[in-house]
Structures are given as C-alpha cells and as structure tokens.
Amino acid sequence: MNSPDIQIPRKLANQLLHLAQLSPDLEVCGLVSSQNGVPSHCYPVANVAEQPRQRFLLDAGQQISAMAKMRELGEELFAIYHSHPAAPAQPSTHDLEQAAYPEALYLIISLNTKGILEMRGFKIHQKTAVEIPLTMNDY
After folding, report:
1. Beta-bridge partners for 39
2. Which of 4, 41, 42, 63 is the most exposed place for a label (fewest CB within 10 A)?
3. What is the pLDDT of residues 97-114, one digit of tens each?
4. Strand runs (DSSP E) across 3-133, as ranges?
C-alpha cells in the first residue's frame, strides 16, 4: 500500500514536539484538528492511564470538550498524538489494541533518541498499523 505524504505545518509539529519535551518521563497525549483537510490545531488532553510512563489514555471529559470545540470551529478530528518517553516512534501492542478511530492519523513522538526528536504517523485499523510519511511545511 503506497500512501501519499501527509503535510504537517511546521508550527504545529514544533508545538507537538514541545509538549512532549515538557513531560519527558510521561506519555503526553491529545488531539489534532484540521480544517479543509489541513492540520490546524493541537488540543492537549490529560493522560489518565494507570501507568502514564508506558501508556496513554485520553481523559474522557477533556476529549469530549476538545471534540465539541472542534465542531464549534468547523474543524474535524485529524490525528491523535502521544509520546513515547523511552520507546521508538512506532505503535506499541497496547497502542494497536486501543486504537478506536481508524479514520484518524496516529502521531507518535519518540523522546528515545539522541538529541533529535522523532515524530511518525500511522493509520491503525483492526490492530494493524500502516506508516504514513510525514512532510513538514510552512503554511
């Protein structure tokens, strides 16, 4: 399956990487919205997982609020993001099992690199992940 690149505005990518750096020992998570197919806003959501160093679970109330705000602004869910403080930027078994939005892109940010943050995107459907190439742009 050959997927086209997904364009991510550099400003948004930098914001996601910055959020991951703010809590380097915990998985941070949240939603990314889009307008007309263009990723536009980041909605950080609290991680309420029992083991936030190894897992993420979006706070249900904050997730509902973020999605309501998106609808209010005419935005759509584009991606669900989370960080991996000590693992590569690829879906874990838990990530594959918990993925509930097959239409959304799953962005994973790895802090397990030597000075360079890594962010990769995946479509996850029926516990199978397909990597979608990401390209940064300046719009």
Report:
1. 34
2. 4
3. 999 999 999 999 998 876
4. 6-9, 29-35, 38-45, 76-84, 105-110, 118-125, 128-132
Stated pTM of the model = 0.93
Tokens of 17: 């990487």
Q: How many CB atoms lie within 10 A of CB 119?
A: 18
Half-sphere exposure at residue 124, Cβ-oriented, CA atoms within 13 angstroms: 23
What is the DSSP secondary structure assignment for residue 9, as one 8-state letter?
Answer: E
In the chain, where are the structural domains located? 6-137
Cα–Cα distance measured from residue 106 to residue 31, given in angstroms and rounded to the nearest whole number: 9
Return the CATH number of the domain spanning residue range 6-137: 3.40.140.10
Q: How far is CA 44 from CA 4, 5, 92, 125, 133, in A?
A: 27, 24, 21, 23, 23
